[in-house]
Specification:
Layout lengths: L1 H23 L2 H5 L1 H9 L1 H34 L1 H5 L1
Helix pairs in contact: 1-4
């Protein structure tokens, strides 16, 4: 599961990087070179929502796995938990 989350994070990173590269090569970007300094300096901030989403997805998977373990223990030892 960790491998899937890592692959998802890398894919998200590469997708955003590709979008930024396409934008930086566009005529709109070349025409607005005054704003380029701000965009070049703040580019790591543009990745923040994607990484937060990947981290939240990972947390959700971990919580679901722990919940599944707990439920299977309850089914395996029902009297132990009913005391």
């Amino acid at each position: 599961m960790k491998t899937i989350l890592i692959a998802l994070g890398i894919a998200t990173y590469l997708f955003i990087l590709m979008c930024l590269r396409l934008y930086h090569s566009s005529d709109e970007y070349k025409g607005n070179r005054d704003l380029a300094l701000i965009q070049d300096v703040l580019w790591p901030v543009t990745y923040l929502p994607a990484w937060v989403g990947v981290l939240l997805l990972g947390l959700l998977v971990i919580l679901a796995r722990e919940n599944h373990k707990r439920e299977s223990e309850l089914q395996q030892y029902p009297r132990l938990w009913s005391l």
